[in-house]
Specification:
Number of strands: 0
Domain Major facilitator superfamily (MFS) profile: 174-397
Strand content: under 5%
Distance between the termini: 43 Å
Mean pLDDT: 83
Number of domains: 1
Shape: globular
InterPro entries: MFS (IPR011701), MFS_dom (IPR020846), MFS_trans_sf (IPR036259)
GO molecular function, one term: transmembrane transporter activity
Largest sheet: none
Radius of gyration: 20 Å
Transmembrane segments: 45-67, 74-93, 99-122, 134-154, 166-190, 211-230, 250-270, 277-294, 300-325, 337-357, 363-383
CATH architecture: Up-down Bundle
Helix content: over 70%
Order of helices and strands: HHHHHHHHHHHHHHHHH
Number of helices: 17
Low-confidence stretches: none
Organism: Pseudomonas laurylsulfativorans
Structural class: mainly alpha
Length: 397
């Protein structure tokens, strides 16, 4: 594939990432609040977001299998269709005051989000190996636009129909998925070679690699904690009588913080290695939890979510780069799908738990619980780094 064609693909994938990422931000900004409005029990307020994550987890392996057999382009179109269905069904659910229909919409939204997260791997396939961290970072950086687009869409559409709060927001989300599909139609991915379609090593063999285990563990903890805290934050701010506009702004800066570092994360990985970048991400996540424990004023939530976003970027992009080092070309779709399935499957537990914990114990306990997995991941990475240094010293002695 030529450099021009590869760059064009990355630009289109980044644009689609921005639009589709805006849809996910809309869900995180409004899902728990709409759930609180429609649910028969307030403890179920975060269930729509949990179902969104279930959709992500349940669609990763099928998406990988379809991509392996038919190519990524078909998966992209199916994902966009799910995004359209999410917007339409969510609007219908709000109009009918149906918690069930709104939750069903979130299932399709999660499927869309699962497909969107494969854009980063698709971008890496369009460039030589030495430029893969850069390609990953550029597509992830497009989330910076999503960080503005999603919350601003919520702010300007949430009360267009005053008697049905957020209904126009989800109509807008469906339209964004339509535009994303149109952009993706122009993506020209490398053709599947016979070697790619041929199965590689058994997954049972591949997953025994210590590097892949580390990558999956860090991906799980980084993404689960980000979801656990981000899901709870808007509802926690509402419980503290902070305005909806303030909640939207906090989430906007969180998503900007998630994706803005992507402009240089690839360079950091190239210079310092993925392990050290992931370690920095985990430390920043720990700092965000500490801020969350410090208070419940608006600025506490803002700073907590900004640090959480930067920590997620370093942790997730770094872990994704580690995954790319753990498989052959013929194994890429199955390994990448398994990685995302494990990451999103773990997120389901955090999402389901967050609503009940928040309603029963409050935001402080949410933050306190997040400390333990952060410490586990940091200890694991530091041990891994020590083993690598020890092994290198033995080979050179």
């Amino acid at each position: 594939m030529s450099t021009t064609s590869g760059n064009s693909n990355i630009f289109r994938l980044a644009t689609a990432q921005a639009l589709a990422g805006g849809n996910s931000v809309i869900v995180y900004a409004t899902g728990a609040i709409v759930g609180d409005m429609l649910a028969p029990d307030k403890a179920l307020a975060t269930l729509p977001i949990s179902i969104f994550v279930v959709g992500m987890a349940s669609c990763t392996l099928p998406a990988g299998a379809i991509a392996q057999r038919y190519g990524r382009s078909l998966v992209f179109m199916l994902g966009a269709l799910c995004g359209i269905l999410m917007g339409v069904l969510a609007a219908i659910g709000i109009y009918l005051s149906s918690f069930f229909i709104f939750c069903a919409a979130m299932l399709f939204g999660g499927a869309y989000a699962a497909v969107v997260l494969t854009f980063r791997f698709a971008a890496a396939e369009c460039v030589p190996e030495n430029r893969q961290p850069w390609a990953l970072s550029i597509v992830m950086a497009a989330g910076l636009v999503a960080g503005v687009l999603g919350p601003q869409t919520v702010t300007y559409t949430m009360d267009l129909w005053e008697s049905h709060l957020f209904i126009a927001t989800y109509v807008a989300a469906a339209l964004m998925a339509v535009v994303s599909a149109a952009v993706l139609l122009g993506v020209d991915l490398p053709r599947l070679e016979a070697a790619v379609r041929t199965p590689g090593r058994p997954l049972a063999v591949i997953v025994r690699q210590p590097r892949l285990i580390n990558a999956m563990l860090c991906g799980v903890i980084t993404y689960t904690l980000m979801n656990f805290l981000m899901t709870s934050a808007p509802l926690a701010m509402k419980q503290e009588d902070l305005s909806l506009e303030s909640s939207n702004l906090a989430l906007q800066w969180h998503v900007i913080a998630m994706y803005a570092p992507s402009f240089f994360t690839g360079k950091l990985i190239h210079r310092f290695g993925a392990n050290r970048v992931v370690l920095m991400g985990l430390m920043l996540t720990g700092a965000s939890v500490a801020v969350g424990l410090a208070g419940v004023q608006s600025y506490h939530f803002y700073l907590c979510l900004v640090l959480l976003g930067i920590g997620w970027n370093f942790g997730f992009v770094g872990a994704s780069a580690l995954v790319l080092q753990c498989h052959k070309t013929s194994e890429r779709n199955s390994v990448q799908a398994l990685n995302d399935f494990i990451v999103f499957g773990a997120m389901v537990l955090g999402s389901f738990a967050s609503g009940g914990i928040l309603n029963r114990y409050g935001w402080t306990v949410i933050c306190a619980l997040a400390f333990v997995p952060v410490l586990v991941a940091i200890a694991t990475l530091m041990l891994s780094e020590h083993r690598v240094r020890y092994s290198t010293q033995e080979r050179t002695s």
